[in-house]
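Quarterly update from the structural biology core.
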Amino acid sequence: MTSQTVPRIEYLKVQNYRALKDIELKNIKPIAVLLGANGSGKSTIFDVFAFLSECFNENLRKAWDRRGRFRELRTRGSQGAIVIEMKYREAPKDPLITYHLAINEKDNRPYIEEEWLQWRRGQTGKPFRFLDFKSGEGQVISGESPEQEDERITEKLESPEFFAVNTLGQFAKHPRVSALRKFIAGWYLSYLTADNTRTTPEAGPQERLSATGDNLPNVIQNLKEQHEPTLAKILVALSQRIPKLEKVEASIMQDGRLLLQIKDAPFAQPILSKFASDGTLKMLAYLTVLYDPKPPQLIGIEEPENHLHPKLLPELAEECRNASANTQLMVTTHSPFFVDRLRPDELWILYRDEQGFTQAKSAAEIEGIKEFMEHGALLGSLWMEDYFDFGNPI
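Predicted structure, tokenized:
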């Protein structure tokens, strides 16, 4: 395999997951933005990634229970398994790997009905599975570059609720399986709220922002102690968007908690974060994620426009694109201002069909969009002016 780099998901198929009866996203780019009206299915696709991440970091049963079990999780009227299939490359010139997962229910408990990994070696070879499990039993080919003729090792998991990738991926002898396990387990899905960033947590540096942003002071403390040049870049970017902002500090209080303080240039004393604007705190939180010195390999951001001034959104989109050199980004939005900075192949429009199921179409596939953009039109404006033919909330 080539040297370590950022894995990229290029394809996603989901079946029987809430409103996602049968949906495919092909040719996914390093930044993929899901656009649509309320209820179009943006958050459901986002939740597919959250569900997988929780399954790998906790377990299937907890992620399943948290979503109301199959009663709420499986598509209404459907009896089949929930299927999630993604195709990805560990590096740009590496073979395309397919990960297929089917989850079903028995005796009111979830189990992994089918799970396999497949790739093709060489330009003309036939695709073959180097991991193939059904209901907790199956085979795996070990080694750095599994070949079809290599020995297949039969394994039986302790329970059919266990993921073969998550279990076998803990062994160094299965490096391809291990790479996928680390990839999924390391995804960062953001559900930031401005109120959560106003907390005063226990002092102590932390490398990564939590999903809700409630440890923002700890992340600032870590950047100050370990990555001061990165913190300086974040503050420069923030000050360009928030007029007069001069300094952000995380101070340790006498009781051992952290206090986030923000100083505006005209004033001698900083203010506490609880008195700072929602937009300032959310932009600061997003920048700490996007400028992370060791970024997660996939970042999901849901509706970044909440609490941000519309004029800040095009520049946030540019920050996302810059960050996509070192990670993959999935963003949900219904803001035309964010969308204005995107290319057609980075934008997916979601809408409900006549049966109520979510459908997705790349803006690059919509007739006339590229031609409009060649003459200076912006994607967000085209959406608002109803040039997409679907996805209009009214």
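Residues 102 and 184 are 16 Å apart (CA to CA).
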